[in-house]
Amino acid sequence: DNAIGILFLLLTVAVCLLRLFVPSNLMNLVMFYTEEGGPFYQKLHVGTYALVALTLVVLSTRRLELSDKDAALLISSFVLYFAITGRLSAFGFIVETYLSAVLVAGLLLALNEQSRRMVATTVLFVLVVSAVIGLGEVILRHRLLPFDKDILVQRATGLTDHPLSLGAQCVVAISFVPLVRWPLWIKIASILVLLLGCVSANARSALAASCLEILLLILIMPWPNLKPGREWRAKAITLFATLLLGVLFMTALLSLG
Question: Is the model more confident about 135 or about 31?
Fold first, then answer.
């Protein structure tokens, strides 16, 4: 049973990484994924097929309970969506977005808490690696993955298919860094790397959201080793220092264009 659990864990990690970090640019090299033409089955990500296959295996070996209320809500959501859109092409969009998310959630529910944490930590680690790759692309002036869009300004893509996607991933990843069981200095370094990932992608909205997110994390996250009074004083000092460094950081970015 332990061997099967470890196998499911590894397969879940593999399909999650496959779905998240195989960009459309690579898919278009072997099929008509986002390009015009091609059959319908080529419009679905290879990671989606892997998610469906693994979910079927999990459902055949493990029992997942879904209440009548949840099932009715899920079916009603699909019916309402198709009634609003009124076109068959919406099915591909559903599969590629909502259904993929539901399949991932189902796979995680089939794992225990420790395994779910390992999957999340692995995905977060790869997100940080993607930001590091983005920084390397800006420094070396060379992209790791193929990029067919004409962007004059060097904007990093990392392991994504577009600079804005890299920025969005960095914003999402920052909010989850405090939840992983990493040493404090690794958490701080990871947040800094993700922030620089937004800079390398030249994603201004993502950069602004990341800065706001960091300020909120300073205020919201508990500091368990300090008493309430000392905690708020320490947060105030940290917040002031962060704002000061942020102003200097933005000034440097503006001076560099």
Answer: 135
C-alpha dihedral sign at 203, 124, 46, 52: negative
Residue 31 has pLDDT above 80, yes or no: no
Give the pLDDT score at 63.
65
Give CA separation, 198 vs 63, 77, 129, 241, 251, in Å: 41, 34, 13, 21, 16
Long-range (24+ apart) CB contacts under 8 A made by 148-156 are 148/25, 148/28, 153/202, 155/200, 155/201, 155/202, 155/203, 156/197, 156/200, 156/201, 156/202
Tokens of 36: 């015009």
> Across the chain, which distance is largest between two alpha carbons, in Å?
64
Report H helices in the chain: 2-21, 24-27, 46-61, 68-85, 90-94, 100-109, 113-140, 163-176, 184-200, 204-220, 228-255
Cα angle value 21/25/30 (rounded, 5°) = 105
